[in-house]
Design goal:
The chain contains 8 helices and 19 strands. By secondary structure, the protein is an alpha+beta fold. The chain has one domain: Glucose Oxidase, domain 1, CATH 3.50.30. The strands form 6 sheets. The chain has a 9-stranded mixed sheet with strand order 1-19-17-11-13-15-16-6-18. A two-stranded antiparallel ribbon has the order 2-5. It is globular, with a radius of gyration of 19 Å. The relative contact order is 0.24. The mean pLDDT is 98.
């Protein structure tokens, strides 16, 4: 379970104690045709016939089913599990906890590190509004968020990060979603390596952002591919959630809240779709 082992009954109680107004923020995006996708990924939803079934019985019941085709854990609002990325070392692909791909990777699901092992995440959530801190509507594509940036923004907000927290970063990049998908997908602002290491040192459970990667793209080092993913997921077992809608919660200045998300239990899956929520 990686960093999910930091979740506890006390952490749930800490989170629920933050609910004072009953305001709910849905942080997930609609899953729809035409949404931004990582190159090579696919999403479609079809209704086979209309109605798909029926009519049945004297009451003439009719009904619909849907058929979804997608890399279902890695499109739209997506939660990256520990089997999502690894590192090739001396010809051997190694994932979190040193697991070797040849020992658990199969075409029919992962024998280890599957998304079904994560369990529900109910914890204290912290929003870091980097766009507000920088005084802009949105950070530029390729703008690096440093550890100092995170700490300065937290200080400005009067917020702190605690062990077991979910840390959400608002960059403003999400305003491009389904408005200018080409610009959204061209890259994004995000945390760099020193910010990732600092967050890992805080012993958090997960990072999330209103971008497609959470980390800065293009990478600080053009020769590196998604190094923050490796730092957080592979080295520290810290989960990652992408393509969130943080516009409303940032606008309302809600920086501390109960965060709730339960990954869909796709046995052997690398990730999960879903609609995380924040409750204040």
């Amino acid at each position: 379970r990686g960093a999910a082992n930091r979740l506890s009954n006390d952490k749930v109680l800490e989170a629920t104690a933050l609910i004072r107004e009953g305001r709910i923020y849905e942080l997930g995006r609609d899953y729809e045709a035409g949404m931004p996708l990582f190159p090579g990924r696919h999403y479609s939803l079809t209704i086979p016939g209309s109605p798909t079934h029926g009519p049945f019985g004297e009451n003439q019941l009719v009904g619909h089913d849907e058929l979804v085709s997608a890399q279902i854990g890695q499109v739209g609002t997506q939660f990256d599990g520990l089997g999502h990325v690894g590192t090739r070392i001396d010809g051997e692909d190694r994932f979190y906890n040193g697991f070797k791909r040849r020992d658990f990777g199969t075409p029919y699901g992962l024998a280890r590190l599957g998304i079904e092992n994560v369990g529900p995440i109910i914890t204290r959530g912290v929003l870091i509004d980097m766009a507000a801190h920088k005084g802009v509507d949105r950070l530029a594509v390729g703008e690096v968020i440093t550890a100092d940036d995170l700490q300065d923004a937290l200080s400005e907000q009067g917020t702190e990060i605690r062990e077991g927290d979910a840390v959400l970063i608002h960059t403003g990049h999400g305003q491009l979603w389904m408005v200018d998908n080409d610009e959204y997908s061209r890259g994004g602002p995000g945390i760099g390596m020193d910010a990732a290491r600092w967050l890992a040192a805080q012993k958090i459970v997960m990072t999330a952002a209103d971008t497609s990667t959470v980390e800065v793209i293009p990478s600080e080092d053009p020769n590196m591919a998604f190094p923050v993913h490796q730092e957080l997921l592979v080295r520290h077992g810290i989960y990652n959630m992408e393509n969130l809608n943080l516009t409303a919660i940032a606008k309302d200045g809600v920086y501390e809240f109960a965060f709730m998300f339960s990954p869909v239990r796709f046995k052997g899956g690398t990730g999960s779709p879903g609609n995380p929520i924040a409750v204040k």
